[in-house]
Amino acid sequence: MKQIFHQILDFPQMVNQKVLNAKLNAAVDGFDSQDGIRCYVKTIYQIAALVFLLGMEYGIVNAAMTYFQSPTAGGIGMVGSILTFALLAYSAFPISQVIRSRGESLGGSHNGMVEFIFKDFVTTNIRILGEVMAIAGLIYAFNLTLSFVFDADLFSSYTSDSILSNISGLYALPMNAISSLLSVVQMDALASILHSFADFKMNSTQTFGGDFLWDANDLIIVAGAYINVIAGLAVLYVNLAIYNFLYSIIAALVNFIPRLAIPLAIRTKSE
């Protein structure tokens, strides 16, 4: 009876040895938080870059098919839209490379899991969002320039405003956080300046008449599209500086608290 009982207890180990030959257990036991995390994070970003590339190209091709089948697209619009389609299709490659290269930078050595998660990982993703916005905004500015030259509404699968509104809130999070903190401590003027800086963008959406009468206001709007790219990059680097500053303060406090020596005098009085 005792032998049968021990066989029942040893049954999981026996199955593990025969089926997997304990390879999975050895992999878990030998997992290195430094090399292992770096390897997996690097692979995840490489896969994400490829998925983004394929998904963006699929969306651009579908949007282009809809545009070129539209009876409202005139002959000059068709010709110019071939150029804008080529620019949009090309933009997926540098954007994908940004995701891949920044993700691979996380594959380098790190000082610990806390710094890796709360500093390296966060700042890398803030940088990715800002640089993706900059590349997409620049391509849109090129397309808007071609629309101005052809004086026609050419094909574009997105607008500059849609880019900023979709991701600017994410990569501008540190600036918005410190702006809210300044409001709490009654520094509303400085908080308002930071909010205005983070939300700054010029109008870069325009409808062209197709009469080949170039208007100075249209040229200003085209210039605004390029200014939006510069402003977006400025916000990106300010946010990186703010987040690194906040992280350094918190890290210093965390390291300082355990070193505090609290003097306690405990006396036993005998009566």
Short description:
With 271 residues, this protein is mainly alpha-helical. The chain contains 9 helices and no strands.
Written account of the structure:
With 271 residues, the chain is mainly α. Helices cover 76% and strands 0% of the residues. The protein is built from nine helices and no strands. It has helices at 2-19, 23-29, 35-68, 75-105, 113-150, 160-171, 173-184, 188-199, 216-256. The longest helix has 41 residues, at 216-256. The termini are far apart. The mean pLDDT is 77.
Poorly predicted residue ranges: none
- Helix coverage percent: over 70%
Looking at the structure, what is the overall shape? flat
Rg over C-alpha atoms, rounded to the nearest angstrom: 28 Å
Task: Name the helix and strand elements from N-terminus to C-terminus, one letter apiece.
Answer: HHHHHHHHH
Number of strands: 0
Characterize the quaternary organization of these chains: single chain
Provide mean pLDDT, rounded: 77
Question: Major beta sheet, specifics?
Answer: none
Cα(first) to Cα(last) distance is: 66 Å
Beta-strand residue percentage? under 5%
Number of helices: 9
Structural class: mainly alpha
Keywords, separated by commas or semicolons:
mainly alpha, 271 residues, 76% helix
Task: Break the fold down into its secondary structure elements and pairings.
Elements: H1 2-19, H2 23-29, H3 35-68, H4 75-105, H5 113-150, H6 160-171, H7 173-184, H8 188-199, H9 216-256
